[in-house]
Design brief:
By secondary structure, this protein is of the alpha/beta class. The protein has two domains: 238 residues, TIM Barrel; 56 residues, no CATH class. The strands form three sheets. Strands 7-8-6-5-4-3-2-1-9 form a nine-stranded mixed beta sheet, with helices on both faces. Helix 1 crosses helix 10 and helix 2 runs parallel beside helix 3.
Length: 353
């Protein structure tokens, strides 16, 4: 069975205006001790060989290349495993790419977000469009697969800005693109400034434009927020959507095995202290019963290109007539319009067993 490993790197040069993740910009002095703790957690976990590894954050590419490479090299992976590292464009250097490829990294995910300078500024991003293009060029030149992450609905973004970004990204020939609606998370600077909150109708329109432009470029939607050329889908994320087993390494990292979910302590200091003292870094857990797992399985599958059994959807005729679901064989699949109201469709799922 596929098994994934997620490694959380909680350090950032600066915090984006919309970010509510477990990341810090004032604790770079902990990087070496933190990486050492992650390596100790991996060594003591008795993990099976991984079919996919995802190093996320935070900004993993802030870690010195040799140190980051040493951490990734500690993970025992299957032949042909997918190994992804998230990178902020301004931190990507030839030395970083060389070090990562040297330990088996075969996929880079770039947080581009937009190619309009004023939109990037509004999101609180540190890079400019030139840095994004340079990072992509380094990956393409090294022959490594890459993903371009985008965010739509930022303050000051116009329809023309969004289409320009999409057209410029398509020109980069990415194997994979992720596009997310800007979300207002409690406690963030964005949440405190209502004048910058995104408009739902505008975001819906931007999503449909993204699906049109990316689809025309040969990138097919395979999950609500993800498009890829055939064969370039992110296997690590597919494992999540299939309720597979995975282990989270590092502070705030989540794990799942056989219906049990657990997560580590949130701050890097507490995580380092626990590992150093030989204690489990686990902070909490939950056990999912069979009905809950069955319902989650349907909800996750509904988000994907595979859809769900048509028999598992109430009022399916009405949904088909409304243009939000299409029936392919015996499967109910969300249309582009349906992906905009996926949560509403999920309320009509019938979980069995």
């Amino acid at each position: 069975m596929p098994f994934g490993i997620y490694i959380h790197i909680p350090f950032c040069a600066r915090r984006c205006e919309y970010c509510a993740f477990a990341t810090w910009e004032d604790r770079h002095h902990l990087i070496a001790a933190y990486v050492s703790a992650c390596r100790r957690e991996i060594a003591g976990a008795g993990l099976p060989r991984a079919s996919s590894v995802f190093v996320g954050g935070g900004t993993p590419s802030l870690v010195p290349p040799a140190l980051l490479a040493s951490l990734i090299a500690d993970v025992d992976v299957e032949d042909g495993a997918e190994v992804t590292v998230e990178c902020n464009p301004e931190t990507v250097t030839p030395a970083l790419v060389e070090a990562l490829l040297g330990v088996g990294v075969n996929r880079l995910s770039f947080g581009v977000q937009s190619l309009a300078p004023h939109v990037l500024a509004g999101l609180g991003r540190a890079h400019d469009p030139a840095a994004a293009r340079a990072a992509v060029a380094l990956a393409a030149g090294a022959g490594v697969a890459f993903n371009v992450d985008l965010i739509y609905g930022g303050h000051g973004e116009s329809d023309a800005d969004w289409r320009w970004t999409l057209d410029e990204v398509v020109a980069m020939s990415p194997p994979h693109v992720s596009a997310y609606a800007l979300t207002v998370e409690p406690g963030t600077p964005l949440a405190k400034d209502r004048s910058r909150h995104p408009d739902d109708d505008v975001q819906a329109s931007r999503y449909l434009v993204a699906d049109e432009v990316l689809g025309a470029a040969g990138l097919r939607n395979y999950e609500i927020s993800n498009w890829a050329r055939p064969g370039s889908e992110c296997r690590h994320n597919q494992l999540y959507w299939a309720q597979g087993d995975y282990r989270g390494i590092g502070c705030a990292a989540h794990s799942h095995a056989g219906g049990r979910r657990w997560w580590n302590v949130r701050t890097p200091e507490r995580y380092i202290d626990a590992i150093t003292a030989g204690r489990s870094p686990e902070s909490g857990c939950e056990e999912l019963d069979a009905p809950t797992r069955a319902r989650e399985r349907l909800e996750l599958s509904l988000r994907t290109r595979q859809g769900v059994p048509a028999s598992a959807v109430r009022d399916i005729g009405m949904l088909v007539d409304a243009g939000v679901v299409s029936v392919v064989g015996e499967r109910a699949v969300l249309t582009a319009k349906g992906r905009l109201v996926a949560n509403d469709v999920a309320l009509r799922l019938i979980a069995v067993g």
